[in-house]
Amino acid sequence: MSHDIPEEIERKLRRAGRLEWWSIFWLMTIIVVMYFAMGSSQAMKTAWIEDTLSLLPPILFLLARKFENKPATDKYPFGFHRVGSLAFLLAAAALSAMGGVLLYDAASALIRQEHPTIGNVTILGWDVWLGWLMVAALVYSVIPPVILGRMKKPLARATMDKILYTDADMNAADWKTGLAGIAGIIGIGFGFWWADAAAAGLISFDILRDGLRNLRIAVAELLDGAPRELESSDIHPIVDTLSDELRKRFAGHDVQVRETGRFVRANVVLAKGAELNGEEARQVVSEEQAWRLVAVGRQLQELPECREDEG
């Protein structure tokens, strides 16, 4: 079977690429607006950092698309399909690290009982409370990502792209960040000094939760784990479907299924395993390298996970 991506899937990937370019454009404008409206608010600072981090998934998606279809080489005989998996791991690790740091900052601010202040600014001769500008910036920061996120999710499911799905999920849930930030700003206006740090804590906890969930899925894939669902770390139904069918065709054999980017790779091996003892390994490779050869399997061609309905 050819490794070529079906034209319909390729078309959806090209559309996803265009949406990611639009995401980068809108995020850049949001980052600028949020920076100038940030003031001394911890919640605004955390929301601004989250918006900056949101640039990672679209950039990594576009980079992965450049490399994943490159032909195999002597140094990379299985091709570059897993470059998306590597990019997914990098994005998840960055989210986890930054979420942890921001959560610590928010907790520290609460423990120290920091009292943030929001002053006034003069606009066209009028004194305006800076908090209203912060709220307006937060509202603006929510609208483009939420719209783009809802447009990306169906494409991510169709193409089985984890980076795209993570990006879409973060975008679609961006309203929670905006709402938490607005609540923190309004809370300061009513004299609740703790509202700002509490809002920052909620935003950073959401970043950390997303990062750890994605990190768990990414590590499982890079450790040759079974294919996972997009929405969770549960094993994808294609594993049972593919394993059952191949066991029928190759009686007396076991089936090993692992993820390779948006594809899956299936190996058919002897039911007792494909491990080799020392003597058998030495017959295949040199004595010095024999210890490295632990299994020999019959490898089937990769099947696009997005075409699982075809078996």
TrEMBL record:
Localization (cell): Membrane
GO CC terms, sorted: membrane
Keyword field contains Signal: no
Membrane topology according to the record: Multi-pass membrane protein
Xref: InterPro entries: Cation_efflux, Cation_efflux_TM, Cation_efflux_TMD_sf, CDF_Transporter
Coiled coil (residue ranges): none
Keywords: Membrane, Transmembrane, Transmembrane helix, Transport
Residue stretches spanning the membrane: 21-40, 46-64, 85-104, 129-148
Keyword Transmembrane helix recorded: yes
MF terms (GO), sorted A to Z: monoatomic cation transmembrane transporter activity
Ranges of residues in domain Cation efflux protein transmembrane: 26-223
Family assignment from sequence similarity: Belongs to the cation diffusion facilitator (CDF) transporter (TC 2.A.4) family.
Protein name: Cobalt transporter
